[in-house]
Amino acid sequence: MIAITVHPPKKGLHTNAGLFYRIKNTTFNYFVNLYASIIIFLNLSSMRKLITAFFAFLLVGYVSAQNSTFTEVYTILQTNCASAACHDAASPAGNLNLSGTETDVYNAILNTNPTNPAAVAADYKQVIPGYPERSFLMRKINNDLYPIIDPDVAEGTLMPQNQPALTNNEIDLINSWILFGAPQNGTVVDKQLIDDYYNGQGMVPLSHPAPPDTSEGMQFHLGGIFLGPLDEKEFHLKYQLQIPDTIEVTRIETFINGTSHHFILYTYDSEASANTQPEGLREVTGFTDAFISGTEFVAVWQYTDNIDLPTGTGYIWEQDIYLDQNYHIKNYTSDSIMKAEVYMNVYYEKRQPETIEMFTDLIFYPNPPAPYPFSDFLIPANSTGVKFSDSFLPVTDLYVWQITSHTHSRSVDFDVFQRNPNGTKGAQIYEGFYNTDYTFNQGYYDNEHPAARYFDPALYVPSNEGIIHEAVWDNNTNSSVTWGLTTADEMMITILQYTVKDWVQVGVEETTEKQFDFDLHPNPTTGSVNIGFNLDSKSEASIEMFDLLGKKVKTIKANHYQKGYHSITINAKALGLPPGMYTVKLTAGQKTAIKKLLVLK
């Protein structure tokens, strides 16, 4: 069976996080969902009361049967650190008393200042939720388990002092507890899984790569995250950089586990957006976790790879910017435990005014993403050659540096073409049968390690032409497949890295020109939005707004502005804009800048 779907072109750049997510199915969620279903279908009030009481009993029993993770951490600290001449009440080393009650100890370590001068200068706390490498307690007990967390010489010796080091099980339990937000209550780490990992059931861990020289870059680490046999999980982790100036990132070398599904790096557009998300690992349990507003893509990795940007371009990261890391992993083994990790080597330089910003965006089908029957994305059982094809028009001209693709296990081909102005296919610009480095046609599409094609010079994609992408699936199972968040579902995504200015010209133009940009706040908004921009000379400026489908919904009449800073206030409600994500395009003379705006109710 062959199903070919050709759609009218979408116009717009789409940046959202809803493409690589999954739905969690745990015992706890099973009870909650079953309870909700029964309440919906039973209308008798007395029956509802009975069912509510029954499931409340089950949930209380389920939760109470679990030991608090901090109780386990507290026990480790009591056993190894709260003795005399160490961290007892009489003369606590470093003024840190670990001999009190659970609550006493929790209050003594959470976000509290160490006394070590080097740790204070580095802005460490005893425990910072979500940041093991900035938690002084973790650094002191790490014992080279994670080399990136080992203390510097000025931070003193490892602990416990004059006693055996903690076991790797204990260190990883504390590391995981901090990584999951360091809560006082609740079970956030499976202790038995960690113990089994170190008792012979663990897979070979990811090796620690050499970090960049500190004069060139910095290294980040995410992990370890423990997954049992055949388990699949996805997480986000907010991370604030501690950089004093705006930088341009020229290269990111990322190392991930061999069975990783993807790793995506985002930046938050403001501290306010970042503050909407809690500290620590956030598990993706459904669609509400999948769409993170106020973020922009930096890059996507589907395997260990080095993204080395063209000379004269860079990812622009502002002072103290917040990142968001998204890691989707699956343990495909039936008898081993995985310890999932990510290492990132980020190379950067001080921001230069002539550097052209590199963007990452994605084009997905269906658009917006939705399973059948809310879209026509259906791959029938026992079918072959099922093809979907779609067109895409960008808001502005693009200079494409990289093209790659993303699907799941049943896809057998993926191709991208230039689109002619009349809507027909033009030249093919991406052949999915190529190998990962795009050096030869290997005769098949490797959906786990899809080809990444780079263009030098950049591939020019006019806004009135765009691209056409298409993919093919064979479904050799007895069940139909539609769009979804897990590896058992399917997706169709083209990933682009591009600039809105030709980077080949860098070094030829005058270096005094400033990168054109504008401020957009508050964002998200429920009403008024302020658009601020700076002009180098007298220019005509106009504002256009596009919805997620690329349809132009509003145009703010062009006006002439003098050189200098200007501010325009618009009201989303007065303009009749329904809640949703919009692309705001500001054009001043020959310059264009684009940002996302989230309108709330």
List keywords for this structure.
601 residues; alpha+beta; Jelly Rolls; 4 domains; globular
Characterise this structure.
This protein is of the alpha+beta class and 601 residues long. It has four domains: 69-192, no CATH class; 201-354, Sandwich (Jelly Rolls), CATH 2.60.120; 368-493, Jelly Rolls (Sandwich), CATH 2.60.120; 518-599, Immunoglobulin-like (Sandwich), CATH 2.60.40.2550. The protein has ten helices and 29 strands. The strands form seven sheets. Strands 2, 4, 8, 9, 11 and 12 form a six-stranded mixed beta sheet that branches. The protein has a five-stranded mixed beta sheet with strand order 1-15-20-17-18, with no helix packed on it. The protein is globular. It starts with 9 loop residues before the first strand and ends with a strand. 37% of the residues are buried. Residues 1-8, 14-65 and 505-515 have low confidence and may be disordered.
In short:
With 601 residues, this protein is α+β, with helices and mostly antiparallel strands. It is 16% helix and 35% strand. The chain folds into 4 domains: 69-192, no CATH class; 201-354, Jelly Rolls (Sandwich), CATH 2.60.120.230; 368-493, Jelly Rolls; 518-599, Immunoglobulin-like.
